[in-house]
Structures are given as C-alpha cells and as structure tokens.
Specification:
This protein is mainly beta. It has four helices and 43 strands. The strands form eleven sheets. An eight-stranded parallel sheet has the order 32-34-36-37-39-41-42-43. The chain is elongated and about 100 Å long. The two termini are about 60 Å apart.
Length: about 600
Amino acid sequence: MKHSLLMSALMLLVSLSASAYQAYFKSGNFFYYVSSQSEATVCLIYDPSLSDTDTHPHYTNLSGEITIPATVTNEGTTYTVSYIGIRAFYKNSTITKVNFPNTIKKIGESAFSQCTALTKITIPNGVTEIADGVFQGCTKASELTLSNTVKTIGYNGFKGCTSLHMVAIPEGVKTIKYGAFENCTNLSAVFFYGETLEEFHNNVFNGCTSLNSINFPKSLYLVGSNVMKGTPWWNNQADGLVYIGSAAYKYKGEMPDGTDITLNAGTKGIATSCFEGCTGLTSINLPNSLIAISGYAFNGCTHLKTVSIPNSVTTMYGYIFNGCSALTSVTLPNTIQTIPAYTFAGCSRLKTVKVPNSVETIGGCAFKDCSSLTSLPISNSVNRIEYSAYENCTGLTSVTIPNSVTVIGHTMFCGCTGLQSLTIPSTVKSIDTYNNSLVKGCINLKTLNIDNERYANIGTFSGVKDIVETVTLGNSIYNIPENAFKDCSALQKMTLPNDFISLGNSAFSGCAQLKDLYCPRPRPIPIDASVFSGVQQHDYCKLHVPAGSKDLYQAMDVWKDFNSIAEDAGSGSGSQSGVAGDVNGDGRVDVEDVNKVINIILKVD
C-alpha cells in the first residue's frame, strides 16, 4: 500500500512538472501543439476534438484563402510556427489557397490531402522534404511552386492532382519517391533545373496521360519501374532500349532471340525491371561507368548465360537475376557489401559465383534453387547469412561455414538433398531455428561437425535427427547439455571435445546404433547412468580413449560398462582431464584442485 501511494505521488509530481505549460492550445483559427518548449516552436495540428477518420474533414469551418501565422502567443510565451501536422487539413473541401510563413520547416504527411478546392500550391522556403501524400488528391490545384530548399518529394506527394499542367522541379531536389505525380492526367510538361536529381522511385509519372515533354538530367541514375508508364512520352519512344538521364530505363517492344546488348558509355544505372522478361537476351556488356543495378533488372531473362559486373558498381538491389535459368557464371564486383535477397534465386544452371571479400551479408533466398552449385558461394568476410539463402541447392555436398559468420537465418539449407556434411564454427552466435527447418529435407546429411557450444545438441538440426550418422564436437565445446543427442536413431560415430567438463543426463539416451564413441580426455569425469541409456555398451558400442587411459575408464562408474575400450583416441590434452588446472581429473578446477596442489607442496598424503 505504501509503495502504491509513493508511486502515485511521484506520478503526480511528474504530471505537475509536465503541465507547467499547455502542450495543446488554440490561437485564432488553429490548434497548436508545443513541439519544443526550449526552442519555443509549435506544430499546427487538426482540431483534437475531431476523430481522425476519413469521415471527419478537418477545419470544416475554414474556407477560401487562409493564412498561417509565423508566430503565436500563449500564456505569455511567443512560439514560432515551424510545422504543419499530419492530416492537419485533410479532406477540407472549401480552402482555395494557403499562405505559408517562411518559418515552416516541415509539412506533415497528408496535411492537405484531398483538399479538393485548393487551386494553388506554394511550398515555402525552408521546407526540405515534401512529405508522403501531402497534397494527394488536390484535384483543382493548377499551379505548383516548389522552393529551392526542397531535397525530397515524398510518396504520393501530388498524386491525383489532375489540374496540374506544368511542373518545374528546382535545382536541389535529389529524390522523387513512389507515385509522386502519379495520375496527374493533365500534366503535359515537366522541367528539371540543374543536375542534382539522382533518384526516381517506382511510378513517379505513371498514368500521366498528357505528359509528352520532359527533360531528364544526366545526374539521374537510380530509377524505379513504371516511372513513365502510360505517358505519351513513353509511347513516342522507338522500340529498343530506352534511356532516361544516365540510366538504362526499359527495353521497349519484343526482343529478338539471341540479342546481345552493350550499354552506352556513361551509363550509371540500370532501372528496376529494365530487362525483366526479356527471354531473348543472351548477353549483356556493362560499362565501367555503371554504379547501380536496381531490383528485378534481369528477372526472368531465361536465356542470359554469363554476366560480369564491373567493380564500379557499388549498389545492387534484390531479384536482379531471379529466374535466370540459363545463367552459368557471374563475376561480382569487389565493391559491394551485400548480395541482396533473391539475387540469384532460381538460377538452376549457375555453377560459378565468386563472392568477393567485400561482402558482409548474404540476403534471404539469395541462392535459393541454385541446384547446379557444388560449392558454397561465400567468402571469409561474410558475417551474416539470412533466411533460406541456400535453400534447395541440391548440388551442395559438403559445406563449411567460415569463421567470420556470426548469424545464420532459418531454412538456410532446407531442401539441400545432396548435402552430406555440414560444419558450424564456434563464431556463430545466432541460428534462427524457426520451425526446426535449418536442414529440413536434407535426407543425405550424414555428418555434422559442430564447434559451437551454443549448438552442441541435435535440437538445432532436429530435421535430420534420424539421418545423421557421424557427429564431431569441436574443442570450443565444454558442456554437452541434457538430451543433447537423445534418440538420434541413426547415430553411429560420436567424437567428444578434448576438454569437455560436463556430459548432461540422457545426452546419448536411445542412440541404439552408436558404434564408436571417441573420448579424448585422459581421465573420465563422473556421469549419470542415463547418459548412455539405450546405448549397447556391453556388446556393440566401442569406447575409444587416449593411450594409457583404459584402466581409468574401466574403474569409473558408467564408463566401465563399455566392454570394448580401445586406446586409440590420441594422447589427449596437457592436463589429466583435458582442463588446464584440473589436477584431480574430475573435469573442473575447484578448491579440491587447490588443496591437492598444497598437499603436494607440503608433501601431505
């Protein structure tokens, strides 16, 4: 009770402190929210009494021309109006013009979306980004003036502004996002000033059925799909490869079989889906000027055979060669850090991919269904392998994960029916075992080499629990948990680490086919009888120990139940048990070892 009262008092103090000024207030026609008390700035917001749904237009009492003030005063404090909030004037159908002060730095998402009476849009100086959907659906807006401070035009920023006839994009704009001017059906001309524009997202001018005049700056090189779809400009282009800015945009028309294409000198980018579905493409020559290849660029090019990507390329997106079933070899640039998702998925004839040492991440499904790969495409710089990266790579037979790898995604080797041997190093800190599918369907996976204490059990590999015949545990493993390899019905050979200090209960329970157990410790450790429950210790399974250790094992409970003990497991490690400092050979270093050393020094029996 006292604790509850104390917490209530503290919360009240916090509340009183926070309410030293009003967070929300009304001044004139508008409501405001104090965005920064220390900087004395406010955000103009919609009436907080209205439900923010499509059925409630905001500021329905305002119409005609409105002016947003540069400053407002509340309770003795003068605030600068710096922001227009999200959906502030959403669906107001009576405002015709908005006068912005130059104090405005940001206009929030959908702030004037579907203001169907708005006739003129002027973006004030100081605004650097046109937010997503900010003027979407302003169907009567016939004039648009952008300030030269704007760097980005957001997603659907002016989509459906059907009265726009001409747009001038000032120098300084670098990025125009998805659908920014989509379905502006009366837009006939677009002019770009300067050479700052670099990036078009998908559908920027899609559906602009009157657009026939546009000048693309040479600085433009990152281009999405369908940016000019449905425009007269596109319809007037001749068949063949069409360029916009410094990007190869789209192949128009039917590509003849056996087509070889050499991109123009100076080409910096290949647009999204540029050659998608071009089944006639057999080879592509890429210039050293190329710096970016966008997603799906060669998706479904089923006759493309070889590709060499120049080292000038620094940016690659997903699905580039997805479904290129004739592709046999690829040279990747040594400038990329990621092989994106689905880059080579479905490249069923791909045999050779040299992964450069610059690559740190292999994306999800990057090599999925690459059934002709016989060796793992990876490098010693890779530290992250994402989900299903090598799923259904049925040609892989032996895989060793490099020591650089720390993260492995789920279903990574799912369906690799040819995989016989898998080695997981000690460096791996995370294996996503979602649905126990890491090696699900690996029906020939007979050998596991696990040098990783975190995964020194069959749980991570449960999909092959009844298939694996040989397991070798590496010397970074000290503890083998309970039930670690319980009921591994196919397990025939197990090699324990040199220096393990514990062997959990039922670790090998039910391993009836276990034939050879290699234990390199010079001295045995005490274990529970359940460890080998169901193992045929008396007449089938042989225990292999270091030279000179047989008598010690025969004298130790549970270990002595092995009728066949051979001294052929090597010489073991330096200490009696394989653990540095373990004097009495019980597998751990504790006070008994200290006392033993003291007794030896003092010559006490």
